[in-house]
Specification:
The chain has about 350 residues and is of the alpha+beta class. Helices cover about 40% and strands about 25% of the residues. The chain is built from 13 helices and 18 strands.
Length: about 350
């Protein structure tokens, strides 16, 4: 029995946009949107994850599809706890006996109160012990950086709600910065731009698709145009406009600048020896935002430092937290311990 209990330890990358669950010895078993659909009159949960995300912007008045996390922290405690409980139960189907040890990733700028809320949600969702790991540390471990060595490693984790920039050496964060400019902010910038420039209303889902297909942070060798459909603000009727990759880049310029500035500022706080290491080794980009075309080139252009995108940027944080579950004793020092 002891062995099977250990086998159930898990790590959760509780993201603003997506939640990933890593189960010991099994890898990432769940990757779903961090969305909960609630009946507003009874507060009953109707759907979680993919099913709930499909409901965003399409629900009747008494049903609300909400995202329990905002900017990487819990905004709606009950919904977050229900969501966590649902995801843990999904992964542990038919095996409710074991209370797992849980490693949860949180943004580095999170307050103690917010940290407590995350832990509490973990305990209420059925965990035996809850450990916290800072997202940039998990991202660095997941990206395969030698975090325990006496060399400077810089990781930039661009998620849905926050961008975490950190310099890591000897198993600890030496300099870090967390800015609330990330994937969601880029979507919002596209919505605002099309409203202002074309008088077109877009939904979040459409904005995200535009970002993924047309978005770029650096001039492309070949700029392309595409048609975008939304609602005309004057007539209220559906309308299609043509936008170019150049225009979408312009729309996202502000939030992207915030991310680049955070990288600059973190380098500025870094001790000279470690800064030298980073010049040699480069910066590693992880998180969904790392997939934005040309972002690595832009940061390279602005800082003069080599930039690499992690092998699988979307799962780096979950894989890093998962590694802490697999090699618990060896990596325990990077976790924020908890006495309960």
């Amino acid at each position: 029995m002891a062995n099977s209990v250990i086998g159930r330890d898990m790590a959760v990358d509780l993201g603003t946009a997506n939640t990933l669950v890593y189960v010991r010895k099994k890898g990432v078993l769940l990757d779903e949107p961090s969305v909960v659909a609630l009946n507003t009159t009874t507060r009953d949960v109707l759907a979680v994850g993919n099913e709930a995300k499909r409901m965003i912007g399409r629900t009747p008045d008494h049903i609300r599809a909400i995202r329990p996390l905002k900017d990487g922290v819990i905004a709606d405690f009950d919904a977050a706890e229900q969501m966590l409980r649902y995801f843990i139960a999904t992964v542990h189907r038919r095996r409710y006996l074991a209370k797992p040890r849980l490693v949860v990733c949180v943004p580095s700028g999170i307050t103690t109160v917010e940290q407590r809320a995350v832990k509490e949600a973990g305990y209420l969702a059925g965990a035996r012990r809850v450990y916290i790991i800072e997202e940039p540390m998990a991202a660095a471990i997941g990206a395969g950086l030698p975090v325990h060595e006496a060399t400077g490693n810089m990781v930039v984790d661009i998620g849905g709600g926050t961008t975490e920039v950190a310099v890591i050496s000897l198993g600890g964060v030496v300099a870090s910065m967390s800015v609330r400019s990330a994937g969601d902010e880029l979507d919002q910038a596209i919505i605002t731009w099309l409203k202002k420039e074309h008088g077109l209303m877009l939904g979040e889902h459409t904005a995200e698709e535009i970002k993924m297909t047309l978005g770029s942070a650096y001039p492309l060798p070949q700029e392309v145009d595409a048609e975008v459909r939304g609602r005309d603000m004057a007539s209220g009727l559906p309308r299609t406009v043509t936008v170019s990759t150049r225009e979408i880049r312009q729309a996202m310029e502000e939030p992207i600048t915030v991310i680049v500035d955070a990288v600059r500022e973190t380098l500025d706080q870094t001790p000279p020896e470690l800064a030298g290491d980073i010049m040699d080794r480069g910066v590693v980009l992880t998180g969904g935002g790392a997939l934005l075309r040309g972002l690595d080139e832009l940061i390279r252009h602005e800082t003069g430092i080599p930039v690499h995108v992690a092998q699988d940027p979307l799962t780096s944080v979950a894989m890093g937290a998962g590694k802490c579950v697999e090699e618990f004793e060896a990596l325990q020092q990077v976790l924020v311990a908890d006495r309960r």
